[in-house]
Known about the structure:
The chain is of the alpha/beta class. The protein has 10 helices and 15 strands. The strands form 2 sheets. Strands 14-13-12-11-7-10-9-8-15 form a 9-stranded mixed β-sheet. β4, α4 and β5 form a beta-alpha-beta unit. α1 (13-24) packs across α9, α5 packs antiparallel against α10 (318-337) and α7 packs across α10. The protein binds nicotinamide-adenine-dinucleotide. Nicotinamide-adenine-dinucleotide binds next to α1. Nicotinamide-adenine-dinucleotide is lined by residues 9-15, 34-37, 40, 55, 70-73, 75, 93-94, 120, 122.
Amino acid sequence: MSKLPIGVIGAGLIGRTHIDRALKQPGVDLVGVADPSDEGRRLAQSVNVPWFADHDEMIRSVKPRGVVIATPNATHAKIAVHCLQRGAAVLVEKPIADTLDDARTICEAALSAKLPAMVGHQRRQNPIMQRAKRMVAAGKLGRPVCLTALSTWLKPAEYFDTAWRRLKGGGPILINLIHDVDQLRYLFGDIVTVQAMTSNAVRSFEVEDTAVILLRFRNGALGTVTVSDTAAAPWNWDLSAGEAERFPRQDVNSHFLSGTEASLTLPRLEYWHYREGKGWHDELTLERTALHFGDPYAEQMRHFRAVIVGEEEPVCPAADAMRSLEATLAVAEAARSGKEIVLSA
Ligand SMILES: NC(=O)c1ccc[n+]([C@@H]2O[C@H](COP(=O)([O-])OP(=O)(O)OC[C@H]3O[C@@H](n4cnc5c(N)ncnc54)[C@H](O)[C@@H]3O)[C@@H](O)[C@H]2O)c1
């Protein structure tokens, strides 16, 4: 397999993960790291990869075919558009941008450059999600009826030493819930309306610490999601699915999907269905699938290469990630206004 030149822009918390996975991916040649910070320079030097203070300098100098953009949300659009115009495909970290206008700009730039633009909703690349997606699509649940997702955990006090996390633009809706929204859309399809309530009663920050959300899907199913960063609880994907080594894995379910024929829990992939009879007096059967462990960040890097060389279609194209952003922004708007928000068709 020929090695494809890839660059990473932004070498902070998640940029480090991308650098690591790019170095380990057989089909990828990590040709540059662009990050103006001293830590970024030190990191690039420590792995013997050319360092650049600026992404444009990196593109002109080492000509990557694709770049991973792992910089703060507000910078995504400007950097992505520029890279696309310079001929590099982009894998933009989530959220695709912090406004819908910016997200649209990225989609349009990809179209005019005729290059792929993908977004790093890596949960889609998890084998657990891939299996769940196939089961739902194959009708194993029957007609989708409802789902419940929990995104509840306790962030330590020092997490909030960083000011933006306490202020408008921070908060668990925009930082964390977008992953769940994208994940639920991936399984049940588009969301058409959103209602929500938020509270900051425990932390008293400008942003919420807790939110409850009601979703209506285009397929007719309804969903509820609870998100809280102040609840001492194990029920959220980061802890339950074990995707990142920085979180201790908990052997619990956090997502519950039901249809007219069966139910499925995630990430434990417990499949509840009737073998004989069908009703609340009949006995339910439980089957569980234990999958091989998969590293979604590694899979995402392999997939990025395959998309660039035309072997695969993007699992999370920019236009789809824009709809996850729209639904997530609608949660904040619904809570603010107390109204049901209707999403674009
Ligand atoms: N998919 C995930 O699991 C996941 C996890 C964490 C963060 N994220 C997303 O990744 C992005 C980065 O988050 P983070 O927590 O790693 O942030 P961070 O603050 O730890 O790192 C950001 C880095 O970008 C660098 N940077 C800033 N402007 C730059 C520019 N113009 N050019 C090059 N480098 C620049 C900074 O110096 C810093 O090193 C955000 O969009 C965030 O939402 C995704």
